[in-house]
Design goal:
The complex is a heterodimer of chains A (421) and B (240). Chain A is of the alpha+beta class and 421 residues long. Chain A has helices at residues 2-21, 23-40, 45-77, 79-91, 110-116, 125-128, 132-142, 185-220, 227-259, 271-289, 308-325, 375-380, 387-397, and strands at 96-100, 105-108, 148-155, 161-169, 176-183, 268-270, 292-297, 303-305, 331-338, 346-353, 401-407, 411-419. Chain A has a five-stranded antiparallel sheet, sandwiched between helices. Chain B has 240 residues and is mainly α. Chain B is built from six helices and no strands. Classes of the chains: A alpha+beta (421), B mainly alpha (240).
């Protein structure tokens, strides 16, 4: 009851305000009509008719106002409906954005925040989704040409994602519209992965395969009766098949990473414990290479959001590289520092070796697939040319950054900055 | 838009400018992306499409210029509004240049035959990814107006410069190996330079946005790490 009377009050106030606003217009209108009557001396019916029209004109907007007030009241009264709308949006697993007539965001569900980030109510959609096809979709739906429409939308960076985006009006004359993003990245990626895998694998597997084929020919021909040579050749062939197997493993794990759309929020990793277990697992390799691993961990909690298995792989690859290529330095330091002192929140993990270092011109490019600073040393160390590109891929998904500093002759330092969210 | 004017038409006009900028930005991003894809896959059809698409950006820039001048003449804007309008003129000019650079990359597709080493194209792709990420982040900041994230843009500029220097060196090496490589490698060198310039334009846009939002110029500490002016290969020492 209180609500109803408040609403009546509101309507009354709006009406009074409306009349007050148009007071000058009304006065001028009346004066003009009376003036016409006195000076032109027309029949009494003309000014009467004109006054009636004037009254009707002032009533029209009032009617509209009352109408909109009624609408507002209806929305107010059905608070449950409004509430359930928000819950409904939250319950949809796909990113969903509700926007108004001027393409400003009214509401975005949690999935939309996770997928696109940087969304805020009131923000303009056409500024956020700038791709030509999205602009066309928004323009089409806002102009009222179509009630619903759908396009394919691809985001290349930072991780490639493809969506089927459908836009439609919400209800009747609510002035609201909705965008729903259906993630189709996986199917696209499977296609791409197949093509990439074949291209990369065929190129990189050809070398060991050619060498194996060559040795088989030699074994069947000239070296048929030479036991010493036969043994040596078989050893080489075994190494080559080992290399092919590692290559396939790495290619598969890279492809698997590319398959996963983006990191699921909510999981956390204790870096101290993760890096401890990485160091333990690489102890045999370090021993073999005569490298001592030193730890320098900061105090306090070192927990960041992320996927434990993936981060394990990152630090395993980095530390393995440090042990292999920084062998001549004799020791490798692993340090973890909380980012309080730095420019931004987060944790920095630095893996530093004291080997020959990396020449400046290679640094920007060593995370590319199959980019090798030195093909020979990479082959002897059983490298596949994919380790750092896996690292880069995982870190991109974690919104983390890899920075590499190195001076020739003084070793190299790989720093991973993991944001604290 | 943060503030609301008495004249709602004024708001509409300002909003139109920023929407048009976003649309131009999306278009430029797409052009660069497709130009690099055309280069890597030697796709002449796609290259032609990119060349034609540049018209849209030229048109966009002209429209923004016209509108901005009309707004200045009619509304006598002050403070934020004036910065917003002048910023729009500057940003649209930068975006138009980005489109030109993308178009130039596309034009060179025909002159680069696909026989160059794979690693070169991978390098160019990586360089383009860096530049495009930068452009995307900058335009996202334009949408959200959260200038606190703008520092990253400059960091990435350093990465782009380092990557460009590395590619420059690699291209010189190929040219020295075999004179027949000189033609395609020179074209690739220009492509790399164009992509690097796209990164610079993104940085310019970032500075303009910073100015629009805060009213201050961005602090001018821009360390340049483009060292290609000093790259010399062994055996090619400059003649004294």
């Amino acid at each position: 009851m209180a609500e109803a009377s408040a609403e009546q009050n509101g309507t009354g106030q709006a009406l009074a305000a409306r009349l007050w606003r148009s007071r000058w217009l009304l006065a001028i209108g009346a004066v003009a009509i009376l003036g016409v009557y006195f000076f032109a001396g027309a029949s009494i019916y003309v000014p009467l008719l004109a006054l009636a029209v004037l009254a009707a004109v002032t009533m029209l907007p009032v009617d509209a106002e009352r109408q909109s007030a009624n609408d507002a009241a209806a929305i107010e009264a059905s608070g449950l409906q409004r509430l359930s709308g928000e819950y409904l949006a939250a319950a949809v697993a796909d990113p969903l954005i509700i926007f108004d007539q001027s393409a400003n965001i009214v509401h975005a569900n949690a999935a939309a925040f996770a997928a696109f980030g940087g969304l805020a109510p009131g923000m303009s959609l056409s500024l956020k989704f700038r791709a030509p096809e999205m602009q066309a979709l928004l323009d089409g739906i806002l102009a009222g040409e179509v009630a619903s429409d759908a396009v394919d939308y691809t985001e290349k960076l930072p991780v490639e994602r493809t969506y089927r985006v459908s836009a439609s009006t919400v209800g009747h004359a609510t002035g609201l519209y909705v965008l729903v993003f259906k993630d189709q990245s996986e199917t696209r990626r499977i296609d791409r992965m197949r093509a990439d895998f074949i291209a990369n694998a065929s190129h990189e597997l050809r070398t060991p395969l050619a060498s194996i084929a060559g040795f088989i020919e030699t074994l069947r021909g000239p070296a048929r009766n030479d036991p010493a040579a036969r043994d040596q050749f078989l050893q080489i062939m075994q190494n080559q098949t080992g290399r092919m197997a590692r290559l396939i493993d790495d290619l598969l794990s890279l492809s698997r990473l590319e398959m996963k759309p983006y990191l699921r929020p909510g999981t956390e990793v204790d870096l101290r414990q993760t890096i401890d277990s990485v160091i333990d697992s690489l102890a045999p390799l370090a021993n073999e290479n005569g490298v001592v691993i030193e730890r320098d961990f900061a105090d306090g909690p070192l927990v960041v959001p992320g996927d434990r298995d993936e981060l394990f792989q990152v630090f395993e690859n980095l530390l393995e590289n440090a042990c292999k290529y920084g062998q001549s330095g004799g020791h490798v330091t692993v340090s973890i520092a909380g980012g309080e002192g730095g420019r931004e929140e987060g944790v920095d993990v630095t893996i530093r070796d004291f080997g020959p270092g990396i020449a400046e011109e290679h640094i920007p490019r060593i995370t590319e697939r199959f980019y090798r600073v030195d093909v020979e040393s990479s082959r002897t160390q059983k490298g596949t040319g994919l380790g750092l590109s896996i690292v880069k891929h995982i870190l991109t998904r974690h919104n983390a950054r890899l920075s590499i500093r190195s001076e020739v002759g003084k070793g190299a330092a790989f720093t991973v900055h993991l944001p604290a969210r | 838009m943060q503030s609301v004017h008495i004249m709602s038409a004024y708001d509409e006009e300002l909003k139109f400018l920023s929407k048009r900028i976003a649309a131009m930005g999306g278009h430029a991003e797409r052009m660069v992306e497709q130009a690099v894809a055309a280069l890597v896959n030697a796709d002449h059809g796609l290259a032609q499409k990119v060349i034609q698409d540049d018209l849209v950006l030229d048109e966009g820039q002209r429209e923004i210029d016209d509108r901005a001048i009309v707004i200045i003449a009619r509304r006598q804007p002050m403070a934020t509004d004036l910065r917003e309008i002048v910023g729009a003129i500057r940003i649209s000019a930068d975006i138009e240049r980005v489109g030109d650079l993308g178009k130039n990359v596309a034009k060179r597709v025909a002159s680069v035959d696909g026989r160059q080493p794979n690693s070169l194209f991978r390098g160019l792709e990586a360089l383009a990814n860096l530049a495009l990420t930068q452009l995307k982040e900058v335009l996202d900041v334009y949408a959200s107006r959260s200038v606190d994230r703008i520092g990253f843009v400059r960091d990435r500029d350093d990465q782009i410069d380092a990557m460009y220097t590395s590619l420059f060196r690699e291209l010189l090496t190929y040219m020295m190996e075999d004179p027949r490589n000189i033609t395609p490698c020179t074209h690739l060198l220009f492509c790399a330079k164009n992509i690097e310039r796209i990164g610079d334009h993104a940085t310019n846009i970032a500075e303009t946005i910073y100015y629009i939002v805060t009213g201050d110029q961005m602090p001018a500490d821009r360390p340049k790490s483009d060292k290609t002016d000093k790259v010399v290969l062994p055996g090619m020492a400059p003649v004294k």
